[in-house]
Design a protein that fits this description.
Layout lengths: L1 H9 L2 E4 L10 H9 L6 E6 L3 E3 L3 E10 L4 E2 L5 E8 L4 E8 L4 E7 L7 E8 L12 E8 L17 E7 L9 E10 L7 E7 L5 E5 L6 E7 L6 E7 L4 E6 L8 E5 L5 E7 L5 H5 L3 E7 L2 E7 L7 E7 L6 E8 L5 E9 L8 E8 L3 E8 L9 E7 L11 H6 L20 H12 L8 H6 L12 E8 L6 E8 L4 E6 L4 E7 L6 E8 L4 E2 L2 E7 L27 E2 L31 E2 L12 H6 L3 E6 L2 E6 L3 E2 L2 E2 L3 E4 L2 E2 L15 E7 L11 E6 L3 H5 L6 E4 L14 E2 L4 H7 L3 E6 L6 E7 L5 E9 L5 E9 L2
Parallel strand pairs: 1-22, 3-10, 41-44
Antiparallel strand pairs: 2-4, 4-5, 4-8, 6-7, 6-9, 9-10, 11-12, 12-15, 13-14, 13-16, 16-17, 18-19, 19-22, 20-21, 20-23, 23-24, 25-26, 26-48, 27-47, 27-49, 28-31, 28-34, 29-30, 29-32, 32-33, 32-45, 35-46, 36-43, 37-38, 39-40, 41-42, 43-44, 49-50
Protein name: Plug domain-containing protein
Keywords: Signal
Organism: Corallibacter vietnamensis
């Protein structure tokens, strides 16, 4: 046995890799680098579930990622979320503001949302520049709450299966050793397990044996003889016997076989035959190991009478995540391709249940990440009963960022491949990539269809317009006012035209425009203006999308009622006066805290003293007043908050409120820190009983209009109230909680409450993205007492 092994190894040429450094000198490399000079966004969207009743709401969290740097895509601001029906017709579109590479929102299902299949697409304007845009497209289903009776039958339908033979690298070559992968699924693309099987030749002689893993995937080696035919005869887990013919091999060519299980070294073996080798001796071949614009080159030299070549690549030279190995011939044509994966500690973080405490009405859950100071911007969690049929576990953030940008096929339960870093899990991941064939990269596009930045990043909104007045030369500037958006801006006129850029505008908010003359008089001239970007009606092609016509029939009639059953996102409950004047505090709405003026203040107390007692420094010098934040600062010193009086910004005219007292105030709100595009020093909103600010703003000098498009503001999640008589159906489709942006406390714990409602065991579907790009993608299950 030892002599045989030594004889086999003596025929193999082991090559120590030296990587090419002069990347610009080669035709393929130069085109590759140019093609990936633009950095694409990749978007993943987590839904709170995938099956709804039309009286529910869809809640989502989107993450935007840079696959090249493997970090959050921080440049992104405007994100489009659109819903299409099964025919690809647009039903509804919203724009959401993105911060730190994340955003979240919701859609309320209205009467025009009939039972059926729908798709949520989340994308950006920048993605239009790319031949293979990595937007998020998710299928979900609205189920009829009163489904019609269907004829039932005890007949078990015949299992239809798809049995694929997938050579490693894409080719079978006669008179050569071939590494052959296989994959078997049913009509719903769910895996079928082969417990045993034989590879037979034309005389039904057993050449080798096979079996699959739990995902219906496996591989075997086969030295194919010329003019011989082969087939597979296999037994499934349910004892069904199936057969599949192996395709006929080419008479010439090269095959590839890889071994990725060694911790230190990747072994790449190239095999050929007698018919091919003479041509290879004259031709310079090379391997590229590449991903997202990164690449390394290995020149391959073929020798007389040698048909197998093994190249040893140190794993330290591989890229984190996916590595694509492509073999090119002397004409710079790709010959074969193989995908591999390199796991690093940075890619995936874990999170564990640190504790639970069950009370009478609710349970407190505490989670702890294994990464210190991680995920400070928040994670998203969908909480459902363990028996749920309403969550798609095949759609995860790890798969969306680490696998799907590079493969064309589907992945069953992708979280498994990142659950451990042991030999078995890594072998199954390698099998998955072997059976995916060529990567999603289209080399024709790389060589002949470069990606050009025709579409810009969108950062907020722009208002452009023109003054329609006879004496335009007497107008100095245009004034834009919007109480809803906390805006008071000016724009100088150029040839009668004006522009306001990078605006944070709320959808369907009121915008008012006036003008100031050269003499300082405010007037209301005729104005024409447009808001950009505009609302575009588009569509999607659903012909190749999976399970388009499959609608759930296994759920009973399910009565569903909205109610006021609200949940707290965290354990800490504040008793402060928290009612918000959201109409005037869009940007600071999340951080605003209402001040209870009836407790602790007399009617003669000055408003400036109330502000001083609630986190700000107030400096008075005669008639001059300045308010400074105690928390925020920059290189120039401490920052000032934005101060609003009845919706009008007065930050530069604080003497207006110097002697204002509590007796004149209706409501007062403070935010010590900024939010979104609001003031970095926080905000202060004062509402008087007699609307002093609105009177002083000379509102009549403004022309008012409602903008048609703007940022949709995320709503606070509310838990729907379910009919208690439908426990069984609730366990299949009901949702317990949704936390789109759960942040850690000072102890770096994630703490939240869920109601004790219809279940003994629950699943936490947890996803997150940290500032360094590491991901959380896991499902945690626990039992209640």
């Amino acid at each position: 046995m030892i002599k045989t092994l030594f004889a086999q190894l003596s025929l193999i040429l082991f090559t120590t890799v030296s990587f090419s450094q002069n990347l610009q000198s080669d035709y393929t490399e130069s085109h590759y680098l140019e093609y990936f000079s633009l950095e694409p966004e990749t978007i993943h969207t987590q839904l709170n579930k995938s099956k709804y009743l039309n009286s529910e709401e869809l809640w989502f969290k989107s993450y935007i990622y840079n696959t090249k740097t493997q970090k959050p895509y921080l440049t992104t601001t405007n994100v489009y979320a659109s819903i299409y029906n099964a025919d690809g017709v647009l039903i509804e579109k919203k724009i959401y503001y993105t911060e730190h590479g994340m955003t979240h929102g919701n859609f309320s299902f209205k009467k025009n949302y009939l039972p059926g299949i729908y798709f949520l697409k989340v994308t950006t304007n920048w993605m239009k520049n790319f031949n293979e845009p990595h937007y998020s497209l998710i299928q979900f289903e609205i189920i009829d709450s009163q489904p019609k009776n269907t004829n039932s039958s005890n007949h078990t339908p015949e299992i239809k299966y798809d049995f694929q033979i997938l050579p490693e690298g894409g080719h079978l070559v006669a008179e050569s050793t071939n590494s052959i992968g296989f994959k078997i699924t049913d009509q719903n693309e769910d895996p079928l397990v082969i417990i045993s099987g034989d590879v037979l030749d034309s005389e039904n002689n057993v050449v080798t044996t096979i079996k699959s893993n739990a995902f219906g995937i496996g591989k075997f080696d086969l030295n194919i003889k010329p003019d011989e035919s082969y087939k597979i005869k296999a037994t499934l887990k349910d004892s069904t016997i199936i057969e599949k013919s192996i395709p006929k091999a080419n008479t010439t060519g090269i095959t590839i076989s890889t071994n990725n299980l060694n911790n230190e070294t990747l072994f790449i073996t190239l095999n050929t035959n007698k018919n091919t080798l003479p041509n290879l001796l004259k031709s310079p071949y090379y391997l590229l190991i590449h991903r997202d614009g990164f690449m390394k080159r290995i020149d391959v030299s073929f020798s007389q009478d040698k048909y197998s070549y093994t190249i040893a690549v140190p794993k330290k030279n591989l890229y984190s995540g996916i590595n694509i190995i492509t073999l090119f011939n002397e004409k710079n044509q790709p010959v074969l391709e193989r995908l591999l994966f390199k796991k690093t500690k940075k890619l995936i973080s874990d999170i564990s249940i640190a504790g639970t405490h069950t009370g009478i009405d609710s349970t407190i859950v505490t989670l702890k990440s294994n990464k210190k100071s991680g995920y400070q911007k928040g994670i998203s969690i969908s909480v459902l009963p363990t028996s749920t049929k309403a969550y798609n576990e095949n759609h995860t953030i790890a798969a969306s960022f680490y696998l799907k940008p590079y493969i064309k096929g589907t992945i069953h339960k992708p979280n498994y491949y990142f659950s451990n870093d042991d030999r078995r899990t890594n072998y199954d991941l390698d099998l998955l990539l072997l059976t995916q064939g060529w990567s999603s990269y289209d080399w024709k596009n790389i060589f002949f269809k470069p990606q050009i930045a025709k579409y810009n990043f969108e950062a907020g909104f722009q208002i452009r317009g023109e003054i329609n007045a006879k004496n335009k030369e007497n107008i100095k500037e245009v004034v834009l006012f919007s109480a809803n958006n906390e805006l008071m801006l000016t724009s100088k006129l150029k040839n009668g035209q004006f522009s306001f850029d990078n605006l944070f505008l709320m959808d369907s908010s009121i915008v008012s425009i006036s003008a100031n003359t050269n003499r300082g008089k405010q007037i209301s001239p005729g104005v024409y203006y447009n808001t950009y970007p505009t609302y575009i009606i588009d569509s999607i092609n659903t012909k190749k999308l999976i399970n388009k016509n499959i609608i759930s029939r296994d759920l009973n009639s399910f009565n569903f009622i909205h109610g006021d059953f609200n949940l707290l996102d965290t354990v800490n409950i504040s008793n402060n006066y928290t009612q918000q004047k959201e109409r005037y505090m869009v940007n600071g709405g999340v951080n605003n805290r209402g001040i209870n003026l009836e407790s602790g203040y007399s009617f003669t107390t000055r408003v400036l003293d109330v502000i001083r007692n609630n986190g700000f420094d107030v400096i008075e010098s005669g008639a001059s007043v300045k308010i400074l934040s105690r928390r925020s600062s920059n290189l120039s010193g401490r920052l000032s908050p934005n101060v609003y009086l009845d919706g009008v910004i007065i930050s530069d005219f604080l003497e207006t409120i110097q002697y204002l007292t509590v007796s004149e105030i209706d409501e007062l709100y403070v935010a010590r820190t900024g939010f979104g595009m609001d003031g970095a020093g926080g905000s202060i909103n004062i509402f008087t009983k007699n609307s002093i600010g609105l009177k002083n703003s000379r509102k009549s000098d403004f022309k008012n209009s409602k903008i048609k498009i703007g940022f949709s503001m995320p709503k606070k999640y509310y838990s729907p109230f379910y009919n208690k008589a439908q426990e069984e159906t609730f366990s299949k489709i009901g949702v317990l909680h949704w936390l789109p942006n759960l942040k850690p406390n000072k102890r770096e714990e994630f703490v939240f409450k869920i109601p004790n409602y219809y279940y003994e065991s629950i699943n936490l579907y947890i996803e997150g993205m940290d500032e360094d790009g590491s991901l959380i993608s896991t499902v945690k299950t626990f039992q209640l007492n």
